[in-house]
Amino acid sequence: MRPLSIDGAFALEPTVHRDHRGSFHEWFRADVFAAATGEALPLSQANCSVSQRGTLRGVHYSDVPPGQAKYLTCVRGAVLDVLVDLRVDSPTYRRWEAVRLGEQRHTALYAGPGLGHAFLALTDDATMIYLCSSGYAPEHEHGIDPYDPDLGIAWPTDVPHVLSPKDAAAPSLAAAEAAAALPRLRPTA
Fold first, then answer.
1. What is the pLDDT of residues 3-59, one digit of tens each?
2. Active site (catalytic) residues
3. Based on the structure, what is the number of domains in the chain?
4. Alpha-carbon separation of residue 107 from 7, 69, 80, 157 (angstroms)
5. Would you say the C-alpha torsion 139, 135, 71, 77 has a positive or negative sign?
6. Among the four residues 3, 23, 39, 55, which has the most C-beta atoms within 10 Å?
7. In this structure, is residue 183 part of a structural domain?
8. Residue 66: which pLDDT band, with cuts at 50, 70 and 90?
9. Is 189 inside any structural domain?
10. Domain assignment present for 11
11. Is residue 79 assigned to a domain?
């Protein structure tokens, strides 16, 4: 695993063994994860999403505490996955990093608690799987407008984007900050 430019974000680029039968790779190992991140990933929930080409999901994040860390990969098709540091007291606050995930390279990403997550499906039937450190709790889940110019995420424009009504109505980063709705790297008591 290698650290990304955002504190608390990592990428795994596994060795993929291919032969005439297909392929095999390890997309998560607790010992490798702990050695790279310095922490264990408690698993409370596993998710799978399938998206049509152009589907834009996010930018989603959860309150800290309790926080929700995600370890994810794309097992079919391809996506442009984006991690955003939304922790107002982080040295990498507002920084985002995009990584192409797909069935060819099998890269996996780790997004620590307080990081925002979004992706754009680049193919039909883009299938993402997630391991989550805590279960879904709607009262702690939030979103930021994925087109917010304060973030400046460079989304590909060669495909029409499809958003859910909730993501299309998500507040700007400035509005979430003004409402004190953004997470912190070091939660206050």
1. 999 999 999 999 999 999 999 999 999 999 999 999 999 999 999 999 999 999 999
2. 60, 130
3. 1
4. 18, 17, 12, 23
5. negative
6. 55
7. no
8. confident
9. no
10. yes
11. yes
